[in-house]
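The passage that follows is intended for readers who have already worked through the single-chain material. We present the inputs for a multi-component assembly, then the predicted structure in tokenized form, and finally a short commentary. You are encouraged to pause after the input and sketch how you expect the pieces to fit together before reading on.
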Amino acid sequence: MMADWETYLKENKKRLLNELLEFLRIPSISALPAHAPDVHRAARWVENRMRAAGIESVRVLPTGGHPVVYGEWLHAPGKPTVLVYGHFDTQPVDPLALWDSPPFEPVIKEGRIYGRGSTDDKGNMFIPIIVAEALVRTGGNLPLNLKFLFEGEEEIASPHLPVFIAENKDLLSCDMVLSADGGQWGEDQPAVVLGTRGVTSVFLDVQGPDHDLHSGTYGGAIANPIHALVQILNSLHDADGKVTVKGFYDDVRPLTREERDQLARIPFDEAAYLRETGAVSLFGETGFSTYERTGARPTLEINGIWGGFQGEGTKTVLPSTAHAKISCRLVADQDPVKIADLVVRQIHQTAPPGVRVKATKAESGAAPYLIPPDHKGLRVAYTVLKDLYGRDPYWVRMGGTIPANAMFREFLGVYTIVFAFGLNDELQHSPNEFFRLSSYERGQKAYGMLLERLGK
Amino acid sequence: MMADWETYLKENKKRLLNELLEFLRIPSISALPAHAPDVHRAARWVENRMRAAGIESVRVLPTGGHPVVYGEWLHAPGKPTVLVYGHFDTQPVDPLALWDSPPFEPVIKEGRIYGRGSTDDKGNMFIPIIVAEALVRTGGNLPLNLKFLFEGEEEIASPHLPVFIAENKDLLSCDMVLSADGGQWGEDQPAVVLGTRGVTSVFLDVQGPDHDLHSGTYGGAIANPIHALVQILNSLHDADGKVTVKGFYDDVRPLTREERDQLARIPFDEAAYLRETGAVSLFGETGFSTYERTGARPTLEINGIWGGFQGEGTKTVLPSTAHAKISCRLVADQDPVKIADLVVRQIHQTAPPGVRVKATKAESGAAPYLIPPDHKGLRVAYTVLKDLYGRDPYWVRMGGTIPANAMFREFLGVYTIVFAFGLNDELQHSPNEFFRLSSYERGQKAYGMLLERLGK
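Having made your guess, compare it with the prediction:
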């Protein structure tokens, strides 16, 4: 038997889809200053839409950057309070020429909504709003207390979210967070997210002579900053890719046997993985599987390197400077600031004579995040997904970073359950981003079931 | 008492200077295809001027690139035959905005001729032509047999000179070469050049995944080509800058005690050297002085490196490719091809798993050059310089490369004596290049004395 809220969603399907398309038409690109008014417009659109859904105290609130939208429905005394998180900003659209249809003129083709932000994250964040509407309109009530926090800076690493959360602890206080930003494993395979990695970055600049020198006249007698750079960078890993920064692994929580078993249960297709990446072989820390390496082990990655002559042919220069950008993916319980400090310290300790070495910590960073597998909300989410897909969800650790997860843990003391329905092939951040209509609809049912069960 | 040829040069001083200015007005930039007609025009100018000087069989001869100019005067039976070498092409002029006067509109200011090519090498190569004219016009004869070979591709590494010399061995056969391309140590300090370094180059390309990957999703499980690049490059030196390529030093001729003493006699001002380069300290192979390091020891220099993200801020990418350009300065008796092969072999041997590594030898290269210090012509040049400057010349080994030196040795079996009068501060290859009038005049006297003494 179909629940009333489900019937409501079904009967209003066309309107609700048209509303999503309207939402997708706002080019709310947070990275581009020219689109700041559009990000603000998207915030207003969300505000109005939440109000229309019966959500209360809805308001657009300023931050140091793009605004956030807050709303609540708190008429379920004795029931848990759940905060729904998502974002209404999008990635830029370059290269525009590769889009089959204009990125902000969404079209529906073969069961998919094509448009920038469709899966990341407008389609996903719209789901809990309309589910709340369905519950309120049909039963007059929600099964629990609900708060909403949607931000407009997720695609630029949420720079103002930590301060906003820290300064609004009471407003945002809750028993758990549901993140409507994220995804599932596959069309027929659900997953619950146990962890996301953190990130921290360091910039490395090496200065040799104060101008480029003739490599004949001076070569052999003046230190080459590229040599120094290479020497420093090579000291950061051993031959199998393990990070050799002193103290780097000190705070890494070792995988338990059970956790390793959980990850091992996810089928891994090596040939497909190599096809997908174009790499000649797998590579990484000895003694760990691929999903352990990407989900449960930290990394130190040189993201960029440059110095000296990069043109055609030869130019026998002894260059003045050389540079590298480094970022580390972190796992529980590593601290981004502490790790950046360790990297900076090791760089300075490894710096050879003859050059000036500067290592700078980037301002942004994000803590790693891990939720206990027996977290009550997570268990409920697990059963919802299992019932809906008819299969046991995988227990996964994402290699990427969702900064908000760790922020909610740090400032509100609560865990976040990633509960969203994007799929990896939906071209997030790329041309022709899309969202499956089937995911959109399944997400609605999943959210309705989850809110009901969490309220029991 | 002034020799007749000296009186001739003095009496014709104004005309000879105006002719040099005329030569300098031809923008014979060999690197720029648009200036190919100008390089050809400069060849014709040299041809006509040599003919006017009384030099015989003068002709412009084609090569695979810009032409050369040949001439001879061979009426001194029983006397040595000397080949004079120089070049009539110039460097480009960028950045043009930094020139105080147009590069090809030479001006004389405070005893200096400003203009592109003034010291490198038109001013220097013009000297032996007018000295020959003075000798022929005043005595009717030269004191020895003279051949001239001027090329138009020195500034682009003389790519067609080896073939030209190899194919014209009889035409160019001689007892020694005088290079009118080079310089002296200082305004009051002469030098004889014992050696020039060779050069050979290798390009290194590392391919990881076939497209840039998300460093969160894949980091730790797929090899980062920058890490591999850094690991390979770091294997090429030890901590004090010694090259660790296997076999690299095998053919290096060790410095004798006498050679070390010769180099040690050149005063070295460390503070001035560091000011000149802007480096914080000297750096190089343990156990060698600065002039030994730059003159008598080979190097392996990374001239350029690049890969991944080089923009502002952070981009957490696991890049697809990483690259480096490497060149080695070589000393006797290293072979450019053999050394490049050793570097390529070591790169492949050091290549870590997980990436594709390609090492490519550059097509161009030049052999190192060393003249025995007791070479008869060199000894004569030494006494001329000593008498003219009133000081003992330094015995120097240049760190840079003059490819022609080794070519004449290889194909004609003769040594080259660098006999030229540029000074290091004359901004060769830079804006506001100039040549001292005093050097121009001293060079004339020096060439006259040298030819006379070599003919005795």
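Commentary: Chain B has two domains: 4-196+368-454, 198-252+298-366. Chain B touches chain A through 79 residues (CB under 8 Å). How closely did your sketch match?
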